[in-house]
Amino acid sequence: MDDATNSLPGPERPVSAANRIGVSDARRLVDLTAAPSVGAYLRDVWRRREFAVVVPAQDLRAQNMDTALGQLWHLVNPALLVGVYFLVFGVLLDTRRGVDNFLGFLVVGVVLFHLFQRVVQDAAVCITRNLGLIRSIQFPRILLPLAAVNGQTLAFLPALGVALLTLLATGERPTLRWLLLAAVLVAMYLFNLGAALVVARVGASVRDLQRLLPHLLRLLFYASGVIFSVEAFVTSEAWRRAFAINPVYDLITCARWCLLGTGVERSVVIGLVVWCAVLPAAGLLVFRRGERRFGS
């Protein structure tokens, strides 16, 4: 009797979801609240990679459209920036000590630091600036800082052309070491990507970061040897090693070695390799940990 009673359907015996849809179907259910694996996450990013390329390219094309010079500002801006720094630090304050081609030395440092500065500033607001998109569409949020890096890298290319023309105008001639600049630029892209991920994560939670960044970047500017030769002005070996810890200084120094033939210490090269290998991975980990809270 008990067996017969148990076999009868009734409201007092709830039917489980697995019984309703079948055990095999239940095994194929996906928990939408669970974070995907790193591999699946990166595959999803790759499938949507056009967003990180097309959108920043369109934004770059739309910039300065309401000005007389238009897209020429991508060339004029870095030229004016280098001119101002050369006048103030090269002529008035005379920081040319220890540098043969100070204008070439300066232009390499300024354009590379300017790229890093623009990437960080853009990444700091890329989440808060796109809250409407984040709340309406499901997509890997990493595409937003990635688009910031790609956009600023595209805007950097005219400045790189200005830097190379300046070097040629000041008497520098291409050598085989110039080819190694491509490796330095790849390293800088990886470093900028890692920095953008960390800054985007912090900027999404700490809105005051936008106010602090200009001051922090100004301090980093002077700590990166952009406008003076560390070898000529810093005599302490301990302080020189401290400069080598700064990844921006490592990038600028290696780029100057490629283009100007200035000296570079082994610790600088090692520091650059370590930063470019560790920071992107660490940035991905930090960014993914806070990704699900973006837009909440």
Task: List the main descriptive attributes of the protein structure presented here.
296 residues, mainly alpha
Explain what this protein looks like in three dimensions.
With 296 residues, this protein is mostly helical. The chain has one domain. Helix content is 70%, strand content 0%. It starts with a helix and ends in a 5-residue tail after the last helix.
Summarize, please:
Helices cover 70% and strands 0% of the residues. With 296 residues, it is an all-alpha fold.
Could you report the average pLDDT, rounded to the nearest whole number? 84
Strand content: under 5%
Tell me about the largest β-sheet.
none
The stretches of 5 or more residues where confidence is low (pLDDT under 50) are: 1-11
Describe the global form.
Answer: globular
Q: Topology as H/E string?
A: HHHHHHHHHHHHHHH
Helicity range of the residues?
Answer: 55-70%
Q: Terminal Cα separation, in Å? A: 55 Å
Q: Structural class per helix/strand content?
A: mainly alpha
How many structural domains are formed by the residues?
1
Rg from alpha-carbon coordinates: 26 Å
